[in-house]
Amino acid sequence: MIQKINAAITAVGGYVPETKLTNADLEKMVETTDEWIRTRTGVEERRILKEPGKGSSDLAVPAVLQICEKRGISPEEIDCLICATVTPDMVFPATANIICDKIGAKNAWGFDLGAACSGFLYALTTGAALIESRRYKKVIVVGVDKMSAIIDYTDRQTCIIFGDGAGAVLLEPNHDGFGVLDSILKSDGSGRQYLHMKAGGSVKPASAETVANKEHFVYQEGQAVFKFAVKGMADVSAELLERNNLTGDDIAWLVPHQANKRIIDATADRMGLSHDKVMVNIQKFGNTTAATLPLCLWEWRQQLNKGDNIVLAAFGGGFTWGATLLKWAY
Ligand code: UT7
């Protein structure tokens, strides 16, 4: 009989840039208040990659190198690197290729995956399938975004939420039932009207006019996205528990996308989960898009125990959303 293989996370890395952008800083830039931002979103400060000429790959490289150090492996042992991002270094080549070049992962192939705030979940499921296929033994999944590159710092609806950061995990085969156990991933492209970037793609290539019209920044209809996010993230997390015969009591940690503290609370309530089991670092890092989930795992890595049932959940542009169940492997 062929033995079942799961893809287990065997190491976690993370990185945020030094520069902090606080609510007090934003009060000087747009018509807003610290009080409004904290009570409506939960964010107190975010990190910004300021150095000119640096991009998402520069955030991801330290996170991936931490993993190699922790596992005692050389970058040349990595088989594949998947980079979830909506802020690639360039339109092409893929940021995954640039990361691999910068760390000397000479034997890896890789690609970028664009699913906005659900990017890490999509990439984790994809990476897990590569491990389960038995063709690859070491797959790195990165979630990274330099949101400051596409944020209009005169738009108070968006500039208060987003920040920059990177997180990564190593996936390896596990024969003892630990690792990624189940995933429900969803998408609905009709939601694109509420959250997108208008220019810079093939429909509307960059021009002097698109730049003048500020069409290379995030466009978000916050209220509409909020409504879909609360329902989407809560529904899918509840469905994942139900189909695995689990209740909130069986879950050690919820790792939710950090878009808005109110969305996180609604998801935890729907799962019947007490709030002390929910990872929340939105106050420090804001919404780092594809990086929120791995940044949580990185921050909480010392508190995770072998056998913990962990649910990761996200909602974002596309619309894309989903939830993943995993059993912590170490
Ligand atoms: O991660 C990807 C997915 N994205 C999300 O999940 C984001 C989901 N959306 C949200 O988190 C929230 O919709 C926002 C944080 C973006 C906005 O919060 P909201 O509670 O939905 O605010 P709103 O847009 O309904 O605006 C309420 C009021 C308005 O004033 P009036 O019309 O009631 O007088 C806004 O003009 O708050 C005003 N407002 C602000 N006031 C101070 C909007 N932004 C600000 C601001 N500071 N930064």
What would you say about this model in short?
By secondary structure, this protein is of the alpha/beta class. Helices cover 31% and strands 24% of the residues.
Attribute tags:
five-stranded mixed β-sheet, alpha/beta, 2 domains, Peroxisomal Thiolase, Chain A, domain 1, single chain, four-stranded mixed β-sheet, binds oxa(dethia)-CoA, 10 helices, 330 residues
Kindly estimate the percentage of residues that lie in beta strands according to DSSP: 15-25%
Low-pLDDT segments:
none
Rounded to the nearest angstrom, the radius of gyration is: 19 Å
SSE sequence, one letter per element: EEHHEHEHEHEEEEHEHEHHHEE
Structural class given helices, strands, pairing? alpha/beta
Q: Count every helix, treating DSSP H or I runs of 4 or more residues as helices.
A: 10
CATH architecture of the largest domain: 3-Layer(aba) Sandwich
Small-molecule binders: oxa(dethia)-CoA
Number of strands: 13
The CATH class of the largest domain is Alpha Beta
Helical content class:
25-40%
Average of pLDDT: 97
Task: Describe the protein.
The protein is of the alpha/beta class and 330 residues long. The chain has two domains: 6-177, 3-Layer(aba) Sandwich (Peroxisomal Thiolase, Chain A, domain 1), CATH 3.40.47.10; 181-327, 3-Layer(aba) Sandwich (Peroxisomal Thiolase, Chain A, domain 1). 31% of the residues lie in helices and 24% in strands. It has ten helices and 13 strands. It has helices at residues 23-29, 34-41, 56-71, 95-103, 119-132, 208-212, 222-243, 261-270, 282-285, 292-299; strands at 6-15, 20-22, 45-47, 80-84, 109-113, 139-146, 164-174, 179-187, 195-197, 218-220, 253-256, 309-316, 320-327. The strands form four sheets. A five-stranded mixed beta sheet has the order 1-7-6-4-5, with helices on both faces. It has a four-stranded mixed beta sheet with strand order 8-13-12-11, with helices on both faces. A hairpin with a 3-residue loop joins strand 12 (309-316) and strand 13. Helix 3 (56-71) crosses helix 4 and helix 7 (222-243) packs parallel to helix 8 (261-270). The two termini are 26 Å apart. Oxa(dethia)-CoA binds next to helix 2 and helix 7.
